[in-house]
Amino acid sequence: MHNEPLAYRMRPRNLNEVIGQQHIVGKDTALYKMIHNGHVPSMLLYGEPGIGKTSIAYAIAGSSKLPFFALNATSAGKKDVEQIVSEARIAGKVLLFLDEIHRFNKLQQDTLLPHVENGSIVLIGATTENPFHDVNPAIRSRCGEILQLKRHTQDDIEQLVDNALNDAERGLGKENIAITNEQITKIAIASNGDARKALTLLESIFYASDEVDGQAIVEDHIIEHLSKRIGVYGDKGGSHFYNLLSALQKSVRGSDTNAAIYYLAHLLENGDLIAVCRRLLVMAYEDIGLANPAVGAHVYAATESAKTLGLPEARIPLASAVIEMCLSPKSNSAYSALDAATAAIHEGKTGDIPPHLRDAHYAGAQVLGHVGYQYPHDYPIGTFGGWVKQEYLPEKLANIEFYKPVLAGEEKRMAGIYDKLKTFKKEK
Q1: How much is the average pLDDT of 11-30?
Q2: Does residue 133 share a domain with residue 68?
Q3: Measured between alpha carbons, how far is 210 from 56 in angstroms, rounded to an integer?
Q4: What separation, in Å, do the N-terminal and C-terminal C-alpha atoms of the chain show?
């Protein structure tokens, strides 16, 4: 019986054994050709857990002739790094795989970076976080390539599982297991593109299966029981979590109810209810805005209800809010107008506040010329209320327009009023 987990034992031993990620290490890629020609460049591997970062590093090591060392930045200390540097001095060049590289501290960097720069240490860093956000620029600048890995396809996972079932040396090939192609497909679907989870699930299923006449009989209910939460991934505050928030907002903005509900479900499975509520509230004003002003109040009520209820019941008001936003008319005109005004200020488009708009609630205001303001409520106009022609912007900015209405939903009515008021301003 093996002591190491199945996922560990089934790591590819060279690039030709890598399944998936062919856009990075396929035989036609520049990286594959470089390595087989004896040149291994420093690089960063970026992607979610279980999609092959560590496997690719070990496969590169197996395809190269360089001494190979592996460290994890969360636990490695200065002495570990110094040991690698010493090995590099002896061997001339070594290959270092550094997992969780975004946690690399300054002391480790100061020890290692000169040797990466002079080529005595070839660095392969792996991270689940966006390297442009979380990896130190000094590390990034010394890595020639930043390679983003993709989730494995269902076919990739099925092939991995099949390989593990048939490999007598490292896998379960010596075991007598009764498993159908349909059950292998179920494992592949449940793993959600994560090779490590697929092989871990397969191993758990094998040990949980009843043995009949020396054969392990895999049953569907065992697969279903063990794979309930296997597709969920996304650390709170991590890159993938923010990618999920981004995907939710863009799906709502694009009026795709099914995608929006999918991303909402994924976010809620990760458990950060407050972050989800905050993003939904922003979306109500950023993407729905004046086209349906009532949505802001509806979403606020839904998010407050969700926080009061807590999970799992919180999903009920949040689902209603997301569907309503998806199917609501949309406008970003209000905050776009504010951004345009902010940009104008930063560009130096400023001026003095007109005297008649300045504070006049004190003795001496008239002496300073703070006079001439006309009170709009004293000038009723139709059913609109009060309006009077006077200048509100600084003289330098007179007639500038920041607001550009979107003719959608309730804003279409507002746009009509806006245009009418503009004609009143132009009248002598």
Answers
A1: 92
A2: yes
A3: 35
A4: 94
pLDDT bin (cut points 50, 70, 90) of residue 238 is low
**Contact call for residues 332 and 339 (beta carbons, < 8 A):** no
Strands (DSSP E) contained in 106-247 are: 121-127, 145-148, 177-178, 210-212, 215-217
Does one domain contain both 222 and 284? no
Sign of the alpha-carbon torsion through 139, 144, 150, 152: negative
Closest by CA to 60, choosing from 117, 108, 125, 112, is: 125
**Contact between 31 and 25 (Cβ < 8 Å):** yes
Read off the pTM: 0.63
Q: Which domain holds residue 161?
A: 154-226
Strands (E), 338-396: 380-381, 385-386
Segment 92-113, tens digit of pLDDT: 899 999 998 888 877 787 788 8
| DSSP secondary structure string for all residues of 359-374 | ---STTTTTTT-----
Pairing of strands 380-381, 385-386: antiparallel
CATH number of residue 253's parent domain: 1.20.272.10
> What's the pLDDT at 236?
54
Number of neighbouring beta carbons within 10 Å of residue 128: 21
- pLDDT given at position 283: 96
> Is residue 4 in some structural domain?
no
| pLDDT category of residue 201 using cuts at 50, 70 and 90 | very high
Q: How far apart are CA 24 and CA 195, in angstroms?
A: 17
Under 8 Å between Cβ of 198 and 237? no
Please name every residue paired with 146 in a beta bridge, in sequence order, or none if there are none.
44
Distance, CA of 2 to CA of 328 (rounded, Å): 57
Please provide residue 210's backbone torsions phi and psi, each rounded to the nearest 5 degrees.
Answer: -75, 145
CA distance 340 to 334: 10
Phi-psi region of 237 (alpha: psi -120 to 50; beta: other; left: phi over 0): left
Q: What's residue 230's pLDDT? A: 55
Q: Give bridge partners of residue 94 from the DSSP assignment.
A: 121
